[in-house]
């Protein structure tokens, strides 16, 4: 750990720009402008800057310094954003944690990242304390709704710029892969800032495009990265409540805060478009609506276009490791190229390759790989996985796509074994590893099956250890509840004599999908 206090750190010139620097700049130039809004409070740039400075100083008092990791676990709130910015102000690395995780899963993130401090909602403090029994490196916990305000009041308010190079890590965003264990994608300040600038250059900005709302939770890269263009330009970020999505309340929030651009997953847009009397709401300020993170039907896309005639409908496709958006489908192509995920953003170089890294002919299916300044530097403390991900000098997405004659990309399937349910990524190997620990489970495979509300939900195909005593749905539900976050738990269970395998022993999930009614959507934008 680095015990250097912010007050003692030297001021240097010529360093990179960070999210914290943006906040400080707007606190100087437009101190009374509203920066952040949630369901409980509003913060001007000056107020947010003062609170971020105090929290940074308080964390420094707990010997958090450059390169140290601070985990943040909370529902959507201004305080969560302030915790992110306070961490970055110290040159430390922020680790957003999914608030749906159980104690075992939180413990893994804390130990793998080597977090030394946690900022969390008071409601999640018991799970954090339980997780700390397996993560002794955590020496400080600050609770939102608990002792946070006292901590801020006791901390000094001074702010001195720290030397935070823009190529240093800013966030470790946990995602998963075929090993079944979450991997921390390391995103630098430069990754995120250049992503924001690339988004602005690709999509364009106007003087009216200054109020952003994302229904994605703040621990998602879409919720985090999406706010940066507005933060750069000194606009307002609206943070809706987490959980229990209320489409009527969401529409009213769009009206009340005069939102100009927003992001939601398809299930949320479907609910919003079904709000009674939607056309009677004054949504004239809404200029751009984006969707991604889960499949969307062409029927829904046409409904969105009809429901919001004044707004550009944009498809955002990519992944956490790319900060996250790599391709966009612009509004003018929403009908002409419906089903496509569009073309690459500025600063994103793309190839479609076979398993040997040969470019496939246009129109044929291959894996889309990326190169450019938006791509992460590594998976935290996982050199082998990092080397595999950057095999051949390009980042391998795991997404299978084809390119049409005009250069537009269409997602055909996911090479990686992943289910997307309501915008949440569910990694089969992780769930399978947990379910395999049940005493009645001999072997298990997880697949996604269609769901009218969530797009896909997980189905567990289990070969029992004892065919005469197979696990019941209650057995699997109870076991899953103890070890898995709610969105990861199987919603369906099928008992089989044995899992189908190929000659090399790999489970044939294609056959399982055919046998149990699983299907794939044409376009699967993901962020």
Q: Could you give a quick summary of the protein structure above?
A:
With 527 residues, the chain is an alpha/beta fold. The protein is 29% helix and 24% strand.
User: Ranges with pLDDT <50 over ≥5 residues?
Assistant: 1-14, 519-527
State the separation between the terminal residues, measured CA to CA. Answer: 32 Å
Q: Mean pLDDT, nearest integer?
A: 89
The count of strands amounts to: 25
Largest sheet: 9 strands, mixed
CATH superfamily of the largest domain: ANL, N-terminal domain
Shape: globular
Query: What share of residues are in beta strands?
Result: 15-25%
**How many domain units?**
3
Strand order, main sheet: write it out.
Answer: 2-1-10-9-11-12-13-14-15
Give the % helix. Answer: 25-40%
**Number of helices, counting only DSSP H or I runs of 4 residues or more:** 16
Question: Taking Cα atoms only, what radius of gyration do you get, to the nearest Å?
Answer: 23 Å
Could you tell me the CATH topology label of the largest domain: Rossmann fold
- CATH class identity of the largest domain: Alpha Beta
- At CATH level 2, the architecture of the largest domain is 3-Layer(aba) Sandwich
SS-derived structural category: alpha/beta
List its salient traits:
Rossmann fold; GMP Synthetase, Chain A, domain 3; single chain; 25 strands; 9-stranded mixed sheet; 16 helices; 3 domains; alpha/beta; 29% helix; 527 residues
Describe the overall structure.
With 527 residues, the protein is α/β, with parallel strands linked by helices. The protein folds into three domains: 17-164, Rossmann fold; 189-414, 3-Layer(aba) Sandwich (Rossmann fold), CATH 3.40.50.12780; 418-515, GMP Synthetase, Chain A, domain 3. Helix content is 29%, strand content 24%. The radius of gyration is 23 Å and the shape is globular. The chain starts with 18 loop residues before the first helix and ends in a 12-residue tail after the last helix. Residues 1-14 and 519-527 have low confidence and may be disordered.
